[in-house]
Structures are given as C-alpha cells and as structure tokens.
Design a protein that fits this description.
This protein is mostly helical. The chain is 70% helix and 0% strand. The chain has one domain.
C-alpha cells in the first residue's frame, strides 16, 4: 500500500513538516508533560507520607515518570488509541514511574527470552 494514500489531506497553504514514521511530536510532548505531572503528584504523595525531601531522588523519580509516559505515549500512538485515553494512560504511567518501566522490561524479557 502506498504511504501517501494513508496520509490525511491537508490544505494547500499548510506548511509541509516531515514527521518520522507518523509520530505526532506535539501530542507526544503533551503526553510526556502529563506524565511528568503524574510523577510530581506521586513524589508529593511520597513526601506526604513523612519521607524527607531529597533533590536527587526527586529528579530520578520525575525523570522515570517522563520516560514511562514517553513509552506509553509511543505505544498508544502506534496502536491508534484515542487522545483522551492516551492522556489517562500517560498520567497513570507517570504516577507509576520506574515501576511501570520495570513491568515493561520484564514483559519484553519474557517475550524475547532475553537474559538479564
């Protein structure tokens, strides 16, 4: 099938911006921002439970939230999931952070029989 037939029509005066593999980068950026927000909420809940603030733990916590959201956003775009559902999935992924990354890693290893 010709990839040009899969592209939506655009107005003739719209600028042509090539996007690699059909990834909507603006949506992806928004979803990562939502995931980062989920990571901040998760860290604030961690502090509310009585933990002491640690700058480096905060940075690693929020960074893993962004990575988890990025991965989920790419998976959702690849599977043509609606924007609202993608936003919810990215927020939850951001809140889960490193735990979700570990779950995905375990599933990939199990499926590919990759050694740890």
């Amino acid at each position: 099938m010709n990839p040009q037939t899969l592209m939506p029509s655009r107005p003739p005066d719209a600028p042509v911006v090539p996007v690699a593999h059909g990834i909507d980068w603006l949506t992806l950026l928004l979803m990562v921002a939502i995931a980062l927000w989920g990571g901040v909420v998760s860290y604030l809940r961690y502090l509310a439970k009585g933990a002491r603030f640690s700058f480096w733990f905060c940075v690693s916590h929020i960074s893993s939230a962004g990575l988890a959201g990025f991965c989920v956003a790419l998976l959702c775009q690849d599977n043509h999931v609606s924007m609202p559902l993608t936003g919810v999935a990215c927020a939850i992924a951001g809140h889960m952070g490193a735990e979700l990354i570990k779950i995905i890693e375990d599933r990939v290893r199990a499926r590919g029989k990759v050694a740890p």
